[in-house]
Design goal:
The chain is α/β, with parallel strands linked by helices. The chain has helices at residues 134-144, 168-183, 202-209, 228-243, 273-286, 303-307, 313-332, 343-347, 353-360, 393-402, 431-436, 454-469, 475-478; strands at 4-5, 13-16, 25-28, 31-34, 44-46, 55-58, 61-66, 75-76, 81-82, 107-112, 118-119, 123-128, 154-157, 187-194, 217-221, 249-252, 257-262, 290-293, 369-373, 383-387, 407-412, 424-428, 443-444. It has three domains: 4-82, Archaeosine Trna-guanine Transglycosylase, Chain: A, domain 4, CATH 2.30.130.110; 123-247, 3-Layer(aba) Sandwich (Ribose 5-phosphate Isomerase B, Chain: A); 252-478. 28% of the residues lie in helices and 20% in strands. The strands form six sheets. Strands 19-20-18-17-21-22-23 form a seven-stranded parallel sheet, sandwiched between helices.
């Protein structure tokens, strides 16, 4: 196993791949660098003297500015570097030509829906219109588990606290998310469970849902019936009968839509897990498939790398708007834009938002950006898409699902047990985590600094994704975890 890594020839720091003691002599580019301090795994050390005010380079780009003199071999972290980012910026389009050649077809066993969409699960979903009926939805989930079997894979209630006492964009977001959930092809049948007096009641939601299959989607307002449990169970039995008629069939991987997200990142995330997911994205795109990258806040400082990969000037303009709108979201709430990374990020070796952003964007691979989506907007074009959503793990992963992702790839250096409404694959950045939390982690990208190349791991990940798409349960599914979170932006009455 390697002990340290200089990621890019331009870099002025290297990353410790395992704990390194003070006095360790590192050979970097034919030069000896003696460590002046202990360096924890994932953390950085200086490859040269950097006077105060010098840009610190990692991933070939600036991750911050030295706020004091930093000597060769010293630990480089939050105590001696600061962000170099400002507020709103003017951006110029400098298209970087990228070409992902087609590769041989791949296939999975999925479910073809009557409207032509494809699902990778055959579940029955209970979607509450308002948080007031969450407990009923959960009770129905428990009671309806008896319908699981045959081709019915699960019954899941997606609880959330919204749907009433909301205003403006906040209320619009909730309605769009609920409508998107109702249309998701991983659900063979959907019970929309309303109360009756809420703002986002079923008659109001109908305008957002639009056309739907009356055999697949059923509605119940609890205030309209004497015994909502009895009535709902009858509906769920009908949906189970309908869902059981579907069976898996061979489907081209070009129809897969995969969301990409990171959380609890460490200093290895941008070296192992995120580049592996990026290489996977290129592989899937090469087979005609679709990937969606989200977490706009974590793009600050690396956004130009994505902007310049936009396929058209129009997409560039949409990406600029996406970035600046999110900056305005921060400032409108009197919050500092660049006070990101989290305590866990910092403990894992990430020092600034630029450091976090550049590592995060490794998940995008190298293909052209073909689509830019607003929050809760369904994906429309194949290839790499950017989605506006915050970095919050549950909110962003849910956003990927409602935009159409069949599954979410979630990279992490710290670990997390959560799940989104769709299968959520946990990818560890380091082998220690994969061993320590084997009940959480589905795929270990830490092997990249041990005995496998990025390309080998990307192919392994593609094979694993095809298995999951064909029915293999991920760890969170096996544990029965299914979470949903809606982006809260406005006023609650």
């Amino acid at each position: 196993m390697q002990s340290y890594l200089k990621i890019n020839p331009r870099d002025t720091v290297a990353v410790a791949l395992k704990p390194l003691a003070a006095g360790t002599v590192c050979q970097v580019d034919g030069k000896e660098v003696c460590l002046k301090e202990d360096i924890a795994q994932g953390h950085k050390f200086a490859l040269c003297d950097m006077p105060e005010g010098t840009k610190v380079i990692k991933y070939g780009n600036a991750i911050g500015i030295a706020k004091q003199n930093i000597g060769e071999g010293q630990w480089v972290h939050t105590h001696n570097i600061k962000t170099g980012l400002g507020d709103l910026l003017e951006y110029t389009y400098h298209k970087v030509p990228t070409d992902i050649p087609e590769t041989e077809k791949a296939y999975f066993m999925g479910y073809r829906r009557p409207d032509g969409k494809v699902g990778i699960r055959n579940e029955i979903w209970i979607v509450p219109t308002v948080g007031c009926v969450n407990s009923i939805a959960k009770a129905l989930e428990t009671a309806a588990k008896k319908f699981v079997g045959g081709n019915v894979e699960d019954v899941i209630a997606f609880q959330h606290p919204y749907g009433c006492s909301q205003m403006g964009d906040d209320q619009e977001n909730t309605r769009k998310v609920l409508a998107d959930m109702i249309h998701h092809p991983n659900a063979a049948g959907v019970l929309v469970l309303g109360l009756g007096c809420e703002n986002s009641n079923i008659p109001v939601l109908m305008d957002y849902i639009g056309e739907y299959d009356e055999q697949r989607v059923k509605f119940l307002q609890c205030q309209d019936v004497e015994d909502e449990m009895e009535t709902a169970m009858g509906i769920l039995e009908e949906l189970a009968t309908y869902a059981n008629a579907f069976s898996r069939e061979k489907i081209d991987a070009s129809e897969l839509i995969i969301g990409m997200k990171c959380g609890g990142s460490d200093g290895l995330s941008g070296i192992t897990a995120n580049p592996v997911v990026g290489a996977f994205s290129d592989l899937l795109v090469s087979k005609g498939g679709t990937t969606i990258l989200t977490e706009v806040p974590e793009m600050f400082g690396a956004e130009t790398l994505l902007m310049n990969r936009c396929a058209t000037p129009e997409l560039f303009d949409k990406t600029v708007a996406l970035i600046n709108n999110f900056k305005n979201y921060f400032t409108s709430h009197n919050q500092t834009i660049y006070e990101n990374p989290s305590p866990g990020n910092k403990k894992g070796g990430i020092s600034t938002l630029e450091d976090k952003s550049l590592g995060c964007t490794q998940k995008s691979g190298s293909s052209l950006v073909k689509g830019v989506l607003e929050y809760a907007e369904p994906v429309k074009v194949k290839g790499l898409n950017l989605l506006s959503a915050p970095g919050n793990d549950l909110v962003a992963a849910t956003a990927l699902a409602v935009s159409g992702a069949h599954m979410v790839l979630f990279t992490t250096g710290r670990g997390t047990p959560f799940a989104s409404p769709v299968p959520t694959v946990k990818i560890s950045s380091n082998s220690k985590l994969a061993g320590h939390k084997s009940n959480w982690i589905d795929f270990n990208a830490g092997q990249m600094v041990e005995d496998k190349t990025k390309e080998e791991l990307a192919q392994d990940l593609l094979n694993y994704v095809l298995e999951v798409a064909s029915g293999r349960k991920v760890k969170s599914e096996a544990a029965g975890f299914h979470d949903m979170a809606i982006f809260k932006q406005g006023v609650t009455l």
